[in-house]
Design goal:
The protein is an alpha+beta fold and 142 residues long. It contains 4 helices and 8 strands. Strands 1, 2, 3, 4, 5, 6, 7 and 8 form an 8-stranded antiparallel beta sheet that branches. The chain is globular and about 35 Å long.
């Protein structure tokens, strides 16, 4: 069994802890909007990692945006998803085993991007701040 390594960012550690300790009833928003906790494996360490991400639903699937606030590089979890696509998503009290896939088909990517911007409008600003194309992942139930 791999070891859980909490985020080096205090606000992320605190949010994950509150979300999990409360059974998904507290810590469920970021900037006033709903978030899920994604449990994934580190691509270098194989350690368990947990990341709060904005909730964007597409039917039973979740859209996960690797924006990192428009930073010039992908978030570290991007590499984790590419190396280990099996994740768990906690949405409130529900924990769902899922598989993530980066969406590269332009029409599907645009559809999912538009859904994401509708749920969290700052994504558009983040894309304008960076030269990289912000990756879009789709998580589907196993």
């Amino acid at each position: 069994m791999s070891k859980y390594i909490p985020s080096p960012l205090k606000y992320v550690r605190d949010q994950v802890e509150l979300y999990e300790k409360s059974g998904g009833t507290e810590g469920t928003t970021m900037q006033g909007l709903p978030v899920v906790i994604v449990t994934h494996r580190g691509w270098k360490t194989d350690a368990i990692r947990k990341t709060p991400l904005m909730t964007v639903k597409d039917g039973p699937n979740y859209v996960l945006i690797a924006s990192q606030g428009g930073a010039p590089k992908h978030p570290l979890w991007y590499h984790n998803f590419k190396a280990n696509p099996e994740v768990e998503i906690q949405d409130g009290p529900s924990v769902i085993p899922m598989t993530v896939e980066e969406i590269e088909n332009p029409m599907e990517r645009k559809r999912l991007w538009d859904l994401s911007v509708e749920a969290y409008p700052p994504y558009d600003e983040y894309q304008q701040k960076t030269d990289r194309l912000i990756p879009v992942f789709l998580a589907t139930p196993n």
